[in-house]
């Protein structure tokens, strides 16, 4: 689970980049979200939001290389959601509600939506990950629409082509 905050991550991103440039770490600029599926240990950003504490742990553990990733919000993802809504089997009221939520999220186009710091220690990645509340709302909306369209697809694939009885 990611910790979310209502703040401008652009300021935090600039601060992190400057801090890393002045540190003794080698910095690998990674693709944010590229760590999915790997064995991760997530930093408790909610109780310990200071990324410098996270980097101090890496330093004390003898880590020389840290990964840094930042993502900007691209409204192409919202366009895809809009297409899914148009192609899905939603009531007119549901469509309006989803479209209103999408319009609200468009105001964040180009904003930093995710910051990740990570380091490898003994084949395990230790990760500091932060994103704003509005991006968490986008992820929830994406999952909600995907689940609804997946349910409709499953119902459509329920047929056995007329060869077998459903009894």
Summarize the structure in words.
- This protein has 167 residues and is an alpha/beta fold.
- The protein has one domain (3-155).
- Helix content is 45%, strand content 22%.
- It has 5 helices and 6 strands; from the N terminus they run E-H-E-E-H-E-H-H-E-E-H.
- It has helices spanning 9-22, 51-60, 76-87, 92-106, 133-156, and strands at 3-5, 26-29, 40-42, 65-72, 112-121, 124-132.
- It is elongated.
- The termini are far apart.
- Residues 1-6 and 159-167 have low confidence and may be disordered.
For the sheet with most strands, the description reads:
6 strands, mixed
Count of individual beta strands: 6
Low-confidence stretches: 1-6, 159-167
Order of helices and strands: EHEEHEHHEEH
Number of helices: 5
Fraction in beta strands = 15-25%
Radius of gyration using CA atoms only = 21 Å
The gross shape turns out to be elongated
Helicity, as a percent range: 40-55%
What structural class do helix, strand and pairing data support?
A: alpha/beta
Distance between the termini: 42 Å
Q: How many domain modules?
A: 1
* Overall pLDDT score: 85
């Amino acid at each position: 689970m990611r910790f979310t905050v209502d703040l401008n991550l652009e300021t935090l991103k600039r601060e992190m980049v400057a801090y890393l440039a002045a540190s003794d770490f080698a910095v690998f600029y990674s693709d944010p979200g590229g760590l999915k599926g790997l064995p991760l240990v997530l930093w408790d950003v909610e109780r310990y939001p200071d990324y410098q504490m996270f980097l101090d742990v890496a330093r004390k553990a003898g880590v020389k290389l840290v990964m840094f990733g930042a993502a900007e919000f691209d409204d192409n993802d919202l366009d895809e959601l809009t297409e899914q809504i148009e192609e899905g089997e939603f009531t007119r009221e549901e469509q309006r509600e989803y479209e209103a939520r999408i319009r609200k999220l468009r105001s964040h186009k180009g904003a930093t939506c995710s910051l990740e710091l990570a380091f490898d220690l003994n084949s395990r990645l230790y990760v500091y990950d932060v994103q704003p509340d509005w991006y968490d709302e986008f992820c929830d909306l994406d999952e909600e629409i995907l689940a609804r369209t997946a349910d409709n697809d499953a119902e459509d694939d329920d047929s056995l082509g007329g060869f077998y009885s459903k009894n």
